[in-house]
Amino acid sequence: MTMKPLAILTGINRASVPSSGSLNLVNDLYPAIPDAHTIYLGRTPIDQAWKAAFDHLIPLSTTKRPQGPGFDDYVDELTREVGALIEQLRPDAIHAQNIGFALSLALSRTAGSIPVISIAHGPEVMAAERNATEHAAMLEVAAASAAIVTPTSVLADHIDRLTGRRFTDRITVIPWGIRLAGAQVRDRPSAGTGSLSLVHAGRLDDNKSTITAVEALAHTDQPHCLTVIGNGPLREHLEQRAVALGLRDRVHFERYLPRAELWGRLPNFDAFVFTTRGLEAFGLVLIEAQAHGLPVVYSDLPGVKGILGNAGTAYTPGDPHSLAVALDGLGQDPNRRAALARASVRNAHRYDIAFTARQLHELTLCVIRTGH
After folding, report:
1. 165/195 same-domain check
2. Same domain assignment for residues 248 and 195
3. CA-to-CA distance for 159 and 123, rounded, in angstroms?
4. What pLDDT digit, counting tens, does each position of 7-63 carry?
5. What is the CB neighbour count within 10 angstroms for residue 71?
6. Residue 174 CB: number of other CB atoms within 10 A?
7. 260 assigned to some structural domain
8. Both ends of the chain: CA-CA distance in Å?
9. What SS3 state is found at 319?
10. Residue 1: per-residue pLDDT
11. What CATH number should be reported for the domain holding residue 335?
């Protein structure tokens, strides 16, 4: 007898285009879940490639009002819209992305007897740490969830602490992954010592601390060059700082690139620079860089070394001098660069999206079977 596919309702309350790590993750993850039919709630505009990744994509119509005094009314209106959809669709399980954000609240309030698995991505955890409204929302969604999924034990501990250790037994760590088949490793001839071609990719905000990479180049002994790929509120400030430091010819800024374009560029660099100085949920871009054979020079945050294995070089978070020393050390040792490049590719293969999909599928089935 043929079993019907597992019907999963999920979504992220943003435009349905691959414009961030979280959105890229779900775009890869749900098509990889075996024997599943995924209904995705998103926002217009809708990228056609994105639409093709899901069995059914439904644009939300409630006007988004994520902050301010109208937040409660907004969540109530969104809850009515989502509740009507759940009544019509009757999925087997709900995956509430971003535990505590508005859509996860609406899903948890209208799930009824349908089991909810909430999935943490990081931004909502940082929001809950600094905002009482976001904190209360996280508590509510956690209480309504049969399971809470995080990609690292570090993020799991943050959530456990924020929820007063009340839901420890519901928290499950499932590492994120990427579609490894799309990665290309460049054949690299034996390289000598000297300057490096470096790349940094991500949102240009205070937590990502791209300024650390820019300022580090003013302290290096070798004239390394840095390409910064991404958009964000600090873009103009970063450009001005590079000019003020006399780095106009060594620091280049490019717009955010869709992942296919970014992946096409990554093999052309010598190393990836990761500069986040606060909470990082997982850092998929680290694995993307490694899959393309790039050594990673990374800020030594809790949990990052565990993700990278022994395939990276650490420096003190937020310290340009420490980063400069790490960059010069890598530039002066071609044998170490080559060894790190090989180790990077091996490490990246621990994070195939198929592994993530299988674990989430098994957890979902377990939650459905046990009824909680």
Report:
1. no
2. yes
3. 12
4. 999 999 998 888 788 899 999 999 999 999 999 999 998 888 777 889 999 999 999
5. 16
6. 19
7. yes
8. 27
9. coil
10. 40
11. 3.40.50.2000
Residue-level pLDDT at 191: 58
How far apart CA 59 and CA 11 sit, in angstroms, is 10
Q: Which residue do the tokens 């621990």 mark?
A: 350
pLDDT at residue number 2: 47
What DSSP string runs through 199-239?
A: EEES--STTTTHHHHHHHTTT-SS--EEEEE---TTHHHHH
> Encoding tokens for residue 335?
């044998």
Place of tokens 């960059």: 327
Structure-token pair, residue 104: 């996860």
β-partners of residue 273 are 297
233 located within any domain: yes
Say how many C-beta atoms besides its own lie within 10 A of residue 347's C-beta: 21
The domain of 218 spans: 185-348
Give the pair of three-digit tokens for residue 3. 């079993």
Residues 220 and 293 in one domain: yes
147 shares a domain with 131: yes
CB 158 within 8 A of CB 229: no
Residues 306 and 291 grouped into a single domain: yes
What stretches in the chain show pLDDT beneath 50? 1-2
The per-residue DSSP string of 56-117 comes to: EEEE--SPP--SSTTHHHHHHHHHHHHHHHHHHH--SEEEEESTTSHHHHHHHHH-TTS-EE
Distance between CA atoms of 326 and 267, rounded to whole angstroms? 21
Among candidate residues 305, 272, 292, the one with its CA nearest the CA of residue 349 = 292
Cα 213–215–219 angle (5° rounding)? 105
Look at the chain and count its residues: 372
Tokens (6 digits) for 72: 């409660």
The pTM assigned to this predicted structure is 0.93
In a domain, 91, yes or no: yes
**338 shares a domain with 218:** yes
Q: Does residue 160 share a domain with residue 38?
A: yes
Q: How far apart are CA 328 and CA 93, in angstroms?
A: 51
